[in-house]
């Protein structure tokens, strides 16, 4: 009996996961992918519908010539949602994201002056209020995920180091929980790790098991996926690729070393090459997009990018490298230099050549990745998580909430 | 009924895995770790004993004061064994390895001149005959694992490239299967990958989930473990760390690039620094061990080692770095230089500092790793694998087998 309850709970989780990944599915495809019989799937879908997480749609009536019985469609709803927070040097974005990775609302603003933590948290609170405004009163906030351009202590909700925000040992999760009034603390993570996860699940990396997501914001970071799973390292700090000694060893890095890759392909180096003012580093991607043609100095940046990518390929043998942030616009100008350097430096084995792609989720990879980590609690225990989740009507105090008309 | 059969098979596999990992266990510890009741464990152990894979030992009688009932001990036997083959530039080693990773016999010899593939396979055949000579007639050869200092095509049994053996697209698995007369082809793998696996399971990396095994033979390779699982990359080629652009960009590498890490910390660079003759590169480890003190030139090799290790730490955040081959003896002389360079180049976060250790299995890591991949077929299906496995008495043709007296 106890085993049957466990099995049913396990099947419910699996079904919600399938739905979340696909957004919409037919009952017959769920029957096939879960290896259960049709009546069990119908029962489970009924349960998910009762929870408010999905709705069923009868198929359009077809002509008599159509073979077989058309299957019932199952689509996720916006009843349960997460808040995804993307903290960048240039600005803050908060999104309300529903099951299936559906972005229901977003709000953004420039970062507060000096990245003051208190002001940042207050600003995120304002943006959060803005994105839940149109949510149904009885919808449920099931998690908060936050992406940070820095090193986040695993499970601790502490930013250990975010050099470009000048944050050091900042208990951001607790500060945000207090500001948002949520009882379960937000899940913090590195922005490149989140970008990699999102591209794996919903972007350029679907059907790929080994990928590197390179993120160029002001610094350079990487999210690594090996064998379909994130590479975290012992403390969750893996991917600090900007500080690999890929450079020629002459330029000093803000980390204290010389010759870090970031000194060659970081925003400062690129701004230098393209004549972008040094106080506009966070906009170097936009600056690259607005160029009429590549200045000659950019070729050496391209070679340095290719040099490091060849090293990554030799070490990790990825199938796909996704270029996030300004690295995408950069690559468009220097693809030939990158490819030439990679060819010269990678081992001469055809199966080692990876695909290089732009993010399938454009500039939302990191935001979607933050939503994915926020959804984990619901996916692990749909019934328990929904029961404990605050309803939209109760968020941020009733007084602050505008009347729903 | 079918489910019960499947469950029993699953439990049998799990029990054999536990035994293989531990070598010897008590029935009561199996009861605890497998979460099954005592009579089920007693039945399963009885089945494993009938298969010949383990024997049970009644505990020594204790005095009346001993609390509780002493548990029955379960120990692996040498009835099922694998052949582990370690192909190096300097020599060949073949071992007969039993369950529990017990090395039952080894035989070795220098590599044939020019690493001729045909001669190499014949030599391995001779060594294999030598190590099975003392095996019981009815014992079973359940697999062959082979470590190669090169890049091995996944599942194909083809050596794509072994630069220091000058092998290129060599169908070694088939050649060995023909020579050994085994119907199932040997499992080939990269030597550093095998070293990493062995250190994870039985060496310095037990209770560690993120480790890098660095192998210094003539070239430099790495085996990566992340989250407890090997990082293979899309084609199984991950870990070609000798060709990361960690060098200062001046020395040409045999791979065609300049500035590969191998040009700075490879055997040729070390031989140069310590005055080892260039035709004795395969013995550079022995040469390092015989030094009375470190020549001053070795300090810069140490700094280059530290520079690359810092890069690895920033990218992968490993808990443990194991220094295999000549890198162990090298590290003993240059530890201070390595540590200083790592401190200067790693991010200044205490949780990022890994432990650096010598291989727990000394010079047998790679050999034991080869045995682990060879045992997989038995661990996946003990009954089926044993039924199909050739008996020692039937190996290599009866005529070639010396009489057992």
The name of the CATH superfamily of the largest domain in chain A reads ATPase, nucleotide binding domain
> If you average the pLDDT of chain A, what whole number results?
92
Per the principal axes of the C-alpha atoms, what is the gross shape of chain A? globular
Structural class by helix and strand composition of chain A = alpha/beta
Quote the CATH topology of the largest domain in chain A: Nucleotidyltransferase, domain 5
Keywords (chains A, B): Kinase, Transferase
Protein name (chains A, B): Sugar kinase
Family (chains A, B): Belongs to the ROK (NagC/XylR) family.
Organism (chains A, B): Mycolicibacterium litorale
Walk me through what this model shows:
Chains A, B: Keywords: Kinase, Transferase. Chains A, B: Belongs to the ROK (NagC/XylR) family. Chains A, B: GO terms for molecular function: kinase activity. Chains A, B: This is Sugar kinase. Two copies of one chain form a homodimer. With 405 residues, the first copy, chain A, is of the alpha/beta class. The first copy, chain A, has three domains: 2-59 and 72-76, Orthogonal Bundle (Arc Repressor Mutant, subunit A), CATH 1.10.10; 80-193 and 364-400, ATPase, nucleotide binding domain (Nucleotidyltransferase, domain 5), CATH 3.30.420.40; 206-358, Nucleotidyltransferase, domain 5. Chain A has helices spanning 2-22, 27-34, 38-50, 117-132, 172-180, 191-202, 262-265, 267-274, 284-290, 298-316, 327-345, 365-380, 382-388, and strands spanning 24-26, 54-57, 73-76, 80-87, 91-98, 102-110, 140-148, 151-152, 159-162, 167-170, 187-190, 211-216, 220-226, 229-230, 320-325, 355-357. In chain A, the strands form four sheets. Chain A has a five-stranded mixed sheet with strand order 6-5-4-7-11, with helices on both faces. Chain A has a five-stranded mixed sheet with strand order 14-13-12-15-16. In chain A, strands 1-3-2 form a three-stranded antiparallel sheet. In chain A, strand 13 and strand 14 form a beta hairpin. In chain A, helix 2 packs across helix 3 and helix 6 (191-202) crosses helix 12 (365-380).
